[in-house]
Amino acid sequence: MSHHLLSVTVVIPCYNRWPHIQKAIASVLEQSHRQTHCLVVDDASTDGSYAALQREYRDHPKVTLLQLPDNRGQSAARNLGARHVETELLCFLDSDDILFNDAVARRVDLYREDPEFRGISFGKKLIEGHERAYPDDSWQRNKRLTLNDYLRCKDLLHTNTFMMPTNLFLESGGFDEALRNQEDIELFLRLLPHHEARYSGEKCCRIETVDAQRARHDLRRIMEQGNRFSSAVLRNNALIRKAEPQLIKDLLEHDLRVILNALYKSRQYEQYRSLLRNAKKDNLVSLDGRLIKRYLFSYFR
User: Fold this and answer.
1) CATH level 3 topology of 8-207
2) b/e map of 54-79 (b: 16 or more CB within 10 Å)?
3) For 61-76, how does the pLDDT look when each residue is reduced to its tens digit (9 = 90+)?
4) Domain residue spans in the chain?
């Protein structure tokens, strides 16, 4: 890696996000790190987003536009973008969020200062309307994020805040395209057992609220995904070897509770009861008042 001119590409997936995506793209083009490029992958938008992107950015020297022939989800869009990246480093940005002006520069600094470092650099995440930021102010620049740290608080690392060498991201296999929910968590659980992660010490992105339909609120998507996330976790041998067993158990139980919640809210009561009974039998979930109350109420709804 040529550390005197480290170039970076920010990959932005887009699905029906015009004109909101313009703010995201502008935040990339205004980066203080001049060797920053923007690659937008349209995921077969149906609202004219791709045509609008072409009109606005087709001739821009630092913007590359790609389009998937059919809607395949953010993971597929991000992976396609990554395969077309020609710079040493890459990072990602959601189409309705923004990067702060020095977000790229401060993460690149960690690679410049230590030519041997080839892991993950990451910055601080802010959420619109929330006072709390991740990591908080107790974290100092260059602090290492361990796998167990991340399992205890998955807000410490976000799709918008991490950067890494392009070739290492591609070698990892990228995002799991079978997942439409928690795909970022699954990626980090594959990366962290093998790659050191260092904190840049600076704010990186702001998560904006364009609409409330984030993946964690999409009940249909959660039910369709089912236990694919947990299955991916259990196939991750490096994770199983290196992480604290209780943290893995907590992770799997959380995923199970997410599925149970989606089933209950979608009035799939029979499936809810069946999954809860099987989970209890296999000692995968600890019963609490809420689960028991929902189980009983489901017979009368």
Assistant:
1) Spore Coat Polysaccharide Biosynthesis Protein SpsA; Chain A (3.90.550)
2) eebbeeeebbbbbbbeeebbbbbbbb
3) 999 999 999 999 999 9
4) 8-207, 218-300
